Please model this.
Amino acid sequence: MKIHRFDDVQVGDELPEWVTAPVTRHTLGLYAGASGDYNPLHIDIDFARQAGMPDVFAHGMLSMAYLGRLLTNWVEQSAIRSYSVRFLAITHIGDKVSCRATIADKFVDKGEKQVLLNLTTRNQAGEMKLQGQAVIALS
Amino acid sequence: MIDKKYIGTKLTPFTVEVEKGQLRSFAKVTGQTDPIYLDENAARAAGHRSLPIPPTFLFCLEMASPNPQEVYELLGIDYSRVLHGEQHFVYHHPVFAGDTVSFAPVIADIYDRKDGALEFVVWETRVEAEDGMHVADLRSVMVVRHEKAARPS
Model:
């Protein structure tokens, strides 16, 4: 069971980091099928080049799904109240997606104990790709 | 420039049934190993009525719209110039495989930055269960790159 008590976590605590395998073209093809996002920018290099991009690149939502796994690895999914990201830079073929979260705040909202997490993904060079926040209810 | 008169325009609402097979494919490609997302028996044993949809999956279900290009066609946007800028989810109730959910997207904002080199289209979608229960809200921000915009790295 994934039980974390509100009183046992502190602002500044980090969740266990997890890092994906390098993103491959195969990953993007499978993600297109599984997500229903068939945008050719992610799976057709000819289309991507015509659009002025050097190569196909990862769906932003693939990285957001990976980052979401950091949350569901930590708590039951039903405890997630909200989850948002900004896509700062493109995740390229060959990038490993390093997902991290830090507890940024603890508060009580409408009688429910909650924590605010600051979230990031970075590639193997440490470049930030996604930045986000999630609100999680704790007991 | 995208005509701001479209702010407030409702896109065509639609309903989608959540399929187990698609959820399993999604779990596999995202490297998911927790059996509740892959095995219905494990999900039930954990107290769920079926496979739960992962946190970002409502966005995927929204792609199952009869015409996911509707917003771009309406606004006259070249889809090859679009990048995803932000994505927001607010969750009210969980959704599981076998559920039928309805999506009601509305164009919430249109604005530009960098002297029009980048334009932004925001849409917000209320998601309801079959019985009308409000299950989630999505907010999507898409960025339209114009020629004078710096090429992304």
